[in-house]
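ok trying this again, last paste got cut off
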Amino acid sequence: MPSGVVLLTDRRVARRPLAEVVAAAVAGGVRWAVLREKDLPRAERAALAAELRAILAGAGGRLIVAGPDPLDGDAVHLPAAGPYPPPSAGLVGRSCHDAAELARLTTEDYATLSPVFPTRTKPGYGPPLHPAGLRELIGASPVPVLALGGIESPGQVAACVAAGAAGVAVLGAIMRADDPAAVAATLTAAHEAAGRAGHGAARPAPTTRVSVQEAVTPVAHSPNRRPQPPTATKEAT
């Protein structure tokens, strides 16, 4: 399951060729990456996926592909809008932004919640959740959550982990960095330190879960929903 620092790709803002940035992030401790680049022709995108997959696999990592087509892999990350039901794959994630979208999850393995902080990449997705809003939505999620949006500093990473996130998804901080390996190492170290600090911490009060779930549709109480791990600060992978 994705955890730690999860890199989202965007070759248009990267300061080096995408493969070099991913390799540097891996050197800095990143073990998960999500290939976006949806504007590329499938053949070109599949070749890029194979290249990045090999880079990650060399360090025991894994590539996830944004969209329903796994590009000859076995892991996909879907948008909130669909498709529903999720396609069959070894690992399926979905982007979510509120309690209603979390309530639509069925067989997904994890979700992202965004934006947690103000972000230059996707400024049109509503006001930031901030750690308090993130914590509340994590309490309503049936699956582990990655915090996404505007995460650039160790303090922000720590705040997301303290809110219950299994990991943080990062784009600009690493893609735009002069030294992606150093930034990745700094954020990864912050995640690990926050995980150690929060190990064994108490779960959020049950009233947090109830207050959010009452605000969403009955789908949120479907028997297919899987319980959130006791604390997302543990290193799941």
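PB: full thing came through this time. Residues 164 and 172 are 22 Å apart (CA to CA).
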